[in-house]
């Protein structure tokens, strides 16, 4: 699998998570039910994230990086965003969704990915140069 295919697959996962988010916020009456539904969806995406990883055979990367690091990179921003909105969906998400969703996907997620990769490299030692 090429890195471009991997990035495209990861982008599809993120877009699906953000597409389902407003449906859950509108349809589920309980905050706990919203959280359980989004959590189940997020956990079910982990095997696909593992499948999309190109680092399984990379000798410069620990097996912990694609096993733990890739799901952390992909799922952290959508999950934290969902947590913020799950408790007060009518007050936080819907008035601002037109600018907040693209901002989170195109700015916050790449910044988070760079920070997490730095943590893997400099602190955890999961990636070697």
Detailed description of the structure:
With about 130 residues, the chain is an all-alpha fold. The protein has one domain (about 5-125). Helix content is about 80%, strand content about 0%. The chain contains five helices and no strands. It is elongated. The mean pLDDT is about 90.
List the SSEs and their pairings:
Elements: H1 3-27, H2 31-52, H3 64-86, H4 89-92, H5 97-124
Give the structural class. mainly alpha
**Residue share in β-strands:** under 5%
Percentage of helical residues? over 70%
Taking all Cα atoms into account, the compactness measure Rg is 16 Å
What composes the largest sheet? none
Overall tally of structural domains: 1
Report how far apart the termini are: 22 Å
- Principal-axis shape equals elongated
DSSP helix count?
5
- Order of SSEs: HHHHH
How many β-strand stretches?
Answer: 0
What's the short version?
This protein is mainly α and 129 residues long.
Summary tags:
79% helix, single chain
